[in-house]
Amino acid sequence: MTGKRSPHPQEARILELIDRGLTNAAISELLFCGPRAVRQVRLDHNRPPAPRSAWRHEHPQEQQIRQLLADDLTDAEISRRTGATPETVAERRRLMGLGRAPMPKAKARPHPREAEILEELRAGGTNNGIARKLGVDKVAVARIRDTHGIPTTDERQRTAQPPVEERWRQHTREVKDGHLEWTGPRATNSSGTPVLRVRGSWYSAAGIAFRMRTGRDPVGQVRPECDLKHCVAPAHVEDEPGRQAIRLQLRRLQGIPDPPTGTCPGGHDLAKDGRLDAALHQYCEGCKRDTSRAKKQATKTT
User: Fold this and answer.
1) Residue 69's pLDDT band (boundaries 50, 70, 90)?
2) pLDDT tens for residues 279-288?
3) 244 near 276, Cβ under 8 Å?
4) Local structure of 91: helix, strand or coil
């Protein structure tokens, strides 16, 4: 006669998972024991067979599985970390509405001439120049540059340039009464507006002066409020709101009533489009804008 079968070393844990509704295969994978052993424990303790819908019960690592799914890991990686079957992970992915699992990223193979490309990059070569010299693809050169964090020629030039404020000061000259005259480049149109090239784009020198004084970007055009044309002294330039506020104060100091509100003859709201010119007379920016558009349209049709 054979003696009574000894209990499985993990019998208590197996029974706990059986009572939670896990299948034999899921328990076997989680506890690293054979499915037959799980089935035998189920029979020895008169537990019913696992239902076909056992996946509906929470997995012991349910919260971790859902967190890893939210972190966009692959089903295989989540299965490896939690011990859940790939089918269990895939079902949670479907229930969470996350779509298809991401494809694992393939590791890029080193370029056969990577050492030569790196040498040329560190010597200051451009992507196109290195590609022509070595007979390689410029996309591969750009990838190696990005992988090793080697800046491009433009990036090195921008880093080497002094701050915008310092470059702005290099193009100014102080004249009487605190005015600053611009000695740098100007717009090529008839206005002759002082400008400065910053990172490939042209900016108004008066706008830079305004930011230096106020610490914010201007609203509308920035122009000097002094008597020197194209003055760029930070204390003398104003944007549109500042200019209108100064002119309104001047009207009040001269005892001139505030300009009327309501709508202009053209139907524009003066609270939004009302402006004061240098002579402190009110005009409508909306009407001025409409007139300019009409002239441009007439020029196009003729």
Assistant:
1) confident
2) 999 999 999 9
3) yes
4) helix
